[in-house]
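Many introductory courses stop at the sequence. We go one step further.
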Amino acid sequence: MIKVIGFDLDDTLWDVAPIIIGAEAQLDEWLQNKVPDLKFTVTSMRKLNHQVLEEDPGLIKKITEFRRRTIKTALSLSGIPEAQSERLSLEAMEVFLQARNKISLFDGAEDVLLALAGRYILGALTNGNADINRLGLNHIFSFAFSAEQVGAPKPGLNLFTAALSHTSIRADEMIYVGDDPKLDIDAAKRAGLHTIWMDRGKKTPGEFLADATIREISELPLAVARIETDLKT
């Protein structure tokens, strides 16, 4: 019997590209207004990524702190004193995260999620830094884990292990829904979960076939029901 349904977030429940573009534009505007002497734009800061990672390789698994440290490095290289760079980088990340968490769910997604939440425990498992509390989705999702929290991103199994431990269920009692064949479907299959691939027509299948494939969120309840039926036969 299925007890829990886990979800990837970005590109599964909303289109993330325009959100990140918009958030970076707001961050850029804030930085230029706050620090007129800044020698970098958000785009040109990317050339500092290698330097920042060389100083702290562990940041590759901490995307929020990685971005903040890159901003701080850009501020320092622009002649901003250490303490001020630290403070401004923290403020800058808050600007980014507020904008990054202003999303528009795919059409019909909220109704589908609310209906499923009436029958199953729903959880969010993401490599990104979307936050269910900032998103205003904590009335739908009972739990959420990010790669930063568990120490490794998908396709590692840490996120799935955390979800199973949190809910005290077996792997075969959980379905995972995601858009990425390798990061979501293959990884969840290796963890022993049932899977539903949200196929947006942009990616080719991975190593494992999903238990169900859908192209619209409205198809999700039927896909879940079919998996439940198959488990009874």
